[in-house]
Amino acid sequence: MCSIDAKCGFGCQLHRISWCMIHAVMENRTMVMRPNAIREYGRDTECGSHWNCWFDNVSGCQVYAAARKSSLKDQKDFKTYSENPFTKHKDWLPPVLVERGLKNMTEMPTAWFVGQIVGWLLKYADELNATIEDFKAEMNLTRPVDVSLHVRRTDKVQAHRGEQTEAASHTFQEYMQHVDHLIYPNARHHDYYAEHEHTPVNIYVATDDPTLPNDFSNYPRYNFIYDERGMALASKQNTRYNAESLDRLLLDLRMMSEAEFFVGTFSSQISRIVVELMMARGLPDVPRRVHSVDAVYYAAE
Questions:
Q1: What is the pLDDT of residue 87?
Q2: CA distances to 16, 78, 86, 286 from 92, in Å
Q3: Which of 62, 102, 201, 214 is the most buried if burial means most Cβ atoms within 10 Å?
Q4: Which residues lie across from 292 on neighbouring strands?
Q5: At what angle do helices 109-121 and 96-105 cross, to 10 degrees?
Q6: Do the strands 261-264 and 147-151 form a parallel or antiparallel pair, or are they unpaired?
Q7: Does residue 256 or residue 2 have the better pLDDT?
Q8: Gap between the Cα atoms of 276 and 267, Å rounded
Q9: Angle between helix 10-26 and 269-281 (nearest 10)
C-alpha cells in the first residue's frame, strides 16, 4: 500500500509515488496506490484529490476498493509504506540486471530508469490532454518547441515564514547562456541549428515569476512562449496549490519535456521530472541535451 502523507508540492509527491513503485518492482510485490494521491491540490474540485482528476488509472486492475473491503491488514505479508523508507535501497538504482547495459547506453542511467516509472505513471486524462492541445493551437505551435526553460524564483528560492531557502536564485542571463551554447553554431548541437536556421527558435518558459517576460526583449532572435495564467497562479502562495494551478503545472511539464533541449535547476524536483520524461520519450542523447544552472541530477529521496 503506497500512502503518501507528506505535505509537499507535486514534484515531491510524484517522486515519492515513483519510489513506492520502484520498491514494489524490486520486491516483486503489487503496489496499491491510494486514490487521493494528490493531497495538496484537490480541495476546490468536485472529485477532491483523486488521482483520476488529472490522470488515467495506472493500470487496468482496480484493486484499491477490493483491498479496503478485505482483511489485508490481518495478513502477515501486508505492508503499508508511507513517507520515504526506501533510502537503504538506493543501490537499486538502476537495478543490477540492467545497470551495465544502461551505462553503455546513457550517461544518466538512474534518470533513465526513474524516467520509465515516472513516464508510466503520468498518463494524462483526456480532458487535460485537450487543454494542452488548445494551448498549443492558441500559441500557433505546429511542432514541439526547440528549447524549454524552468526558471523558479519564488518557490523555495525566497524564504517563506523564516524557513531556509532550498536553492539560490539565478539570473535569466545564466539560463540563456546555456541556451546559446546548445543552439548556436559553436555549440555542441550546431547541426540542429543549421537545420532550423530559417525558422524562429521557439523557447517555452515555465516560471513562477510573472515579471520574467520583461527580460525576453533582450534576446530578439528567440521566440518566447509561456503560460501567463500558470505564471500568475504559481507566483502566489495562496493559489500555488489549487487544482487549476496543477492543471497549468502539468501543461508546463508536457511542453518542457517535449522540447529538444532543456535548461533548468536540478535542485528542483520539477526540473528533474522534465529530464526523466525526456528519457521516457526515448529521446537520444538526453544528457547532452539538458543543462542545469545549479546542481547535478540526482534521484529524489
A1: 46
A2: 15, 22, 10, 22
A3: 201
A4: 264
A5: 110
A6: parallel
A7: 256
A8: 14
A9: 50
